Amino acid sequence: MSDVSFSVLGAHAGRESNSVCAASAQPVKTPDATADRCLRADHLTKRFGKTMALDDVSLSFEYGTIHALLGRNGAGKTTLLGIAANRLVPTEGRILVDGEPVTDDPCALSKVFCTSDVQTIPGSMYVDDLVGWMGRFHEGFDAKRAVRLAKAFDLDLKAKTGALSTGYRTICQLVMALSLDADYLLLDEPVLGLDAAHRELFYRLLMEDYLARQRTVVIATHLIEEVATLVEHVAIIDEGRVLMAASADELRASGYSVSGRADDVRAYCKGLDALSVDELGGVAVAYLLGKPDAARLTDRLDTAPISLQKLFVKLTEKGE
Amino acid sequence: MKLKAAFRYQAVELVQSASVFCLIIGAIIVVFFAMTITRIAYVYVPNLGFLPYVLMPLLALSTFSGDVRFLMQMGLARPQMIASTAASLGAACLFLASIEAVCSVVFPFWPSGQSLFLMSYGAGNGPVLDFLFTFLGCAAASSVGFAFASLQMRFGARRVVLLTVAAVVLVLVALQSRGAALVGNGLSWLLGFGEGASLANPFLLFAAIAAIGVLIAWAAVRRIEVR
Q1: Which of A3, A61, A66, B173 falls between 20 and 30 A from A218, CA-CA?
Q2: What keywords would UniProt list here (chain B) (predicted)?
């Protein structure tokens, strides 16, 4: 994470955490109580008609950390972020921001900014007008930085947001998000439609921003390998339920793979709860949770740490 | 700060639309008037004073959904959105009522040819009551549009339209069976006509409709979602 080289694009100086809610001018948490600061889903359930999008989800995104929220399409990532951003109303449970329920609470909402692929910006609005409105709605919005970032991404400020391609619409939202000093930045599929150069630039800017501000960033994605080196905490959700939530290192250490001749691999896995076994010709790879069992290992078997991507795929695959 | 910005965002949009509407109506009246003066043709200028009462609900209906999406992205809470929408619709009504009052003072033909209030209740009532009538009437009409738009967003357009049609049919059936004359008399009384009616009635009626509309919108918006 720290080996990324950074160009200076006007990163903000590190700032103190909000001790006063701009919306109500009421004191909130003490600035140094970062241990208590988090965005927390508390027994969150969301149903759309008969569809259960989130099922009793309890999850915490600690302050000052980059989190990955991983899940397949339809797993409930966007729903979770939608409730955190007040776009959706929970059926049961709640989301708390620094201890305050976020739903329709102006004070809690002022600490959260969420990007998404849901069309929320009027298509007839020009990008530079959007920059202007962001400044009027958000006290901590840096319009100059937004213009600099837009130029870095080759985003046309004179274009209408409705005329932008999918990639540039995403970029437009990322530019706004990275120019805002919200404590909790929720990025839903942040590289949707971005080409390789723009993705790289975004990750670089995100790290630059994170080092400058130490705020909470939640990246909801299914492109795990791309964010694997950035994130410190990972939560995996599937079919509206949390499968795993731990630090990235813990998750990587939570499983391993065993490879070798198919017969040897099958023998190793006998009696163990393997996530899955992939066989090709006479060779097989098994994915298991826990630590390798030294008593079962032979010199014909190789073990390796499981990658986040593999762990995610194996945990969420549904027999296909 | 956010509420102020939201009001500015919505009010500018609505007042701009209302200004364009006024310019178009003004241009139509000027053209008709010019044709009469220059004797190109003797054209009767129709009364266009009812149009603001049509414009306002249409504006509320056409802008509300997009505004909610944008304001939610900007981090506004639902009660703030209700307040901002109601206030900005009120600002547009205020603008239209001011134009109406100014026209009734400036143009001699206005009270007898274009003002819905002065034509219906008498030119002697003056521009102040004309202003108040237009403001409250537009507020009532826009709050109906606001309520309809909120219900549409909350429950879906098809359900709301079907229910509205069903309600209208029920009312018509009830009118036929209970006597249309009775209801007609009641409506006339509410609008300040007929025996024992006061000029204050339409003002109170519009204020009550505006309040009920905003209440319905508030109830619907409380659980509105953007997907």
Answers
A1: A3
A2: Membrane, Transmembrane, Transmembrane helix
